[in-house]
Design brief:
The protein is mostly beta strands. 9% of the residues lie in helices and 53% in strands. It contains one helix and nine strands.
């Protein structure tokens, strides 16, 4: 009998809580255009601008971004290192927590990888509402001596929610 008496006050308390609806926005982009990475500055593989509305309940949103790309081994020397990463509203850098590195060597053996996918994910928090935000998926050489890298298809998915 005691458990039944606890259920009624709990139900009344939950009914009294004001629960606001969560708004969600989903966007994405992709390309199959070949992109050659030639420098140490981020080269934008894909970008997507998303408008984040003002929902009246919150003026900030969080966006989870996932991106991937297909890379081809340049087969030119050893220890070629490349950094892929994400950013929002700035295409001249990447967020360290999103950075992913791949390393290609020219070992001239059957064990060498000729094609390698790379992906990353990152949550960009507290983005202002009633504004456009542009997300970037980029690649760069680790240092200038690395061989140029060919990137095939690239894609990026963005899921935003008011917090």
């Amino acid at each position: 009998m005691k458990s039944k008496l606890l259920v009624l006050p709990l139900a009344v308390a939950l009914a009294a809580i004001k629960v606001s609806a969560t708004e969600v926005s989903v966007a994405g982009t992709s390309t199959t255009t070949i992109d050659t990475i030639t420098g140490t500055a981020p080269d934008t593989l894909v970008s997507k601008t998303v408008f984040i509305p003002n929902t009246g309940t919150n003026d900030v949103w969080d966006c989870a971004v996932t991106a991937s790309a297909d890379t081809l081994n340049p087969l030119n020397g050893d220890n070629n290192l490349y950094i892929f990463g994400l950013n929002v509203d700035a295409n001249n850098s990447t967020v360290a927590g999103s950075d992913r590195a791949i390393d290609y060597d020219n070992l001239n053996t059957n064990q060498e990888t000729n094609r390698q996918p790379v992906s990353s994910t990152y949550i960009f928090g507290s983005l202002s509402a009633n504004a456009n935000h542009t997300f970037y998926w980029s690649a760069r050489k680790f240092d200038a001596g690395d061989a140029d890298l060919t990137v095939g298809s690239s894609s990026m998915t963005i899921v935003c929610s008011d917090v």
